[in-house]
């Protein structure tokens, strides 16, 4: 009888000891969908003071942690990794601060087709730089190989460089092999100039069908504001057409191969700023 009582006493002591170790080694905190929930056995303020507020003080306190479940925006290679709560909170705050906020401003994007041009594109870049406006250039591969330094400069200024085919052929009139050649040659020319491939393309003439969409893996971008600058080649008409069509989330079509288009650009920018538009790149609208 005495042996049984002694054995039960030892087992009870072991259970108590293991329970105490589990309690001190693994705090009763867990997170789900980035929300940290404290166990009811904790005082929220006490737990905060002990495990979060002083977690970086180096006093040896055990930090709460949880098993990563994919809830954070940054990729973690090992999904079984334990992450300290302090890091979760810091990372969440950094992610929230890095998210762009649109505000109440209307947004609009300037796009230029068919360049680069030896002189006109340089003037366009100077005007954009003067007014701190970013734009998207849909370039022709055959022009990129002639003036790679201009494309490189546009990219260095923070403008987007996108594909407008190699030689401005109507893609819907080509077979698959010809279509791929038009896009791939332009892609290679762009990569040679700026060290990266484009992610968007604009089909020449805006001509696109299901075959074109299936064959070309880049994101197609058209427009919803046409200045017709290529047609009338008159700065005042470019501005007038812009005023008639300007809209929130608009994509403006202009061309950086006509001198008159470059001459109209400053008035276009000033008008849109007066109307409360915020200039964004095309990818920010997609």
What are the salient characteristics of this protein?
12 strands; 286 residues; alpha/beta; six-stranded parallel β-sheet; two-stranded antiparallel ribbon; 16% strand
Structural overview:
It is a single chain. With 286 residues, this protein is an alpha/beta fold. It is built from twelve helices and twelve strands. The protein has helices at residues 2-25, 44-52, 85-98, 120-130, 141-144, 148-156, 176-194, 210-215, 229-232, 235-245, 259-274, 282-285; strands at residues 29-32, 35-38, 65-67, 82-84, 106-113, 136-139, 160-163, 200-201, 219-220, 225-226, 250-255, 277-279. Strands 5, 6, 7, 10, 11 and 12 form a six-stranded parallel beta sheet that branches. A two-stranded antiparallel sheet has the order 1-2. A two-stranded antiparallel ribbon has the order 3-4. β1 and β2 (35-38) form a beta hairpin. α4 (120-130) packs parallel to α11, α6 (148-156) packs across α7 (176-194) and α10 packs parallel to α11 (259-274). The longest helix is centred in the first third of the chain and has 24 residues, at 2-25. Residues 22-85 have low confidence and may be disordered.
SSE map:
Elements: H1 2-25, E1 29-32, E2 35-38, H2 44-52, E3 65-67, E4 82-84, H3 85-98, E5 106-113, H4 120-130, E6 136-139, H5 141-144, H6 148-156, E7 160-163, H7 176-194, E8 200-201, H8 210-215, E9 219-220, E10 225-226, H9 229-232, H10 235-245, E11 250-255, H11 259-274, E12 277-279, H12 282-285
Parallel strand pairs: 5-6, 5-11, 5-12, 6-7, 8-9, 10-11
Antiparallel strand pairs: 1-2, 3-4
């Amino acid at each position: 009888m005495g042996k049984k009582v002694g054995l039960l006493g030892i087992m009870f002591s072991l259970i108590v000891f293991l329970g105490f170790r589990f309690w001190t080694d693994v705090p009763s905190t867990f997170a789900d969908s980035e929300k940290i929930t404290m166990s009811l056995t904790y005082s929220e303020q006490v737990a905060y003071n002990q495990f979060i507020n002083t977690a970086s003080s180096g006093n040896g306190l055990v930090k709460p942690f949880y098993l990563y479940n994919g809830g954070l925006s940054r990729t973690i290679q090992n999904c079984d990794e334990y992450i300290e709560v302090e890091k979760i909170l810091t990372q969440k705050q950094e992610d929230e601060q890095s998210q762009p906020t649109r505000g109440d401003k209307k947004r609009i994007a300037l796009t230029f087709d068919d360049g680069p041009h030896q002189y006109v594109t340089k003037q366009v870049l100077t005007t954009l730089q003067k007014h701190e406006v970013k734009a998207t250039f849909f370039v022709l591969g055959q022009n990129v190989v002639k003036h790679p330094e201009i494309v490189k400069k546009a990219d260095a200024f923070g403008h987007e460089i996108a594909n407008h085919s190699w030689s401005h052929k109507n893609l819907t009139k080509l077979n698959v092999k010809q279509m791929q050649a038009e896009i791939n040659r332009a892609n290679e020319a762009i990569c040679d100039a700026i060290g990266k491939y484009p992610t968007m393309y604009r089909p020449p003439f805006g001509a696109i069908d299901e075959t074109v969409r299936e064959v070309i893996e880049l994101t197609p971008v058209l427009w919803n504001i046409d200045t017709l600058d290529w047609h009338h080649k008159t700065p005042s008409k470019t501005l007038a057409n812009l005023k008639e069509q300007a809209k929130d989330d608009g994509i403006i079509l202009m061309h950086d191969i006509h001198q008159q288009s470059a001459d109209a650009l400053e008035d276009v920018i000033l008008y849109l700023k007066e109307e409360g538009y915020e200039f964004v790149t095309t990818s920010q609208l997609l």
